[in-house]
Amino acid sequence: MPELLNHRILLLVISFFIGLQGTKVLSKWKKCGDRECETAMSSVQATRDYSGPDCRYLNFKTGEEIMVYSKLSREHENLWAGS
After folding, report:
1. Residue pLDDT tens, the chain, 83 long
2. Which of 3, 25, 63, 79 shows the greatest Cβ crowding within 10 Å of its Cβ?
3. Where does the SH3 domain start and stop, copy by copy (predicted)?
4. Judging by beta carbons within 10 Å of its beta carbon (0-12, 13-18, 19+), is residue 71 exposed, middle or buried?
5. Which among 64, 38, 41, 40 has a CA at the least distance from the CA of 51?
6. How far is 47 from 7, CA to CA, in rounded Å?
């Protein structure tokens, strides 16, 4: 029984680390409108249509208004968080 418990714990630890590897950090640095990045820092208008590669990215059409809550800096300055 203790051996089975050890195997389960080992599988849990391995699963945890595999899950962490799949989580990519886009940037360690970002600029926000406030400390919690909850207040919009600007409002922008889309100049072209965009369809993101996955659900983490905002899809928008030309002319739509987008509220910007944060902007990544250093590695990916072209990525902003908005709604």
Report:
1. 556 556 576 666 566 555 544 444 445 677 777 777 777 877 888 888 888 888 878 888 988 888 877 777 666 555 566 65
2. 79
3. 39-83
4. buried
5. 64
6. 55
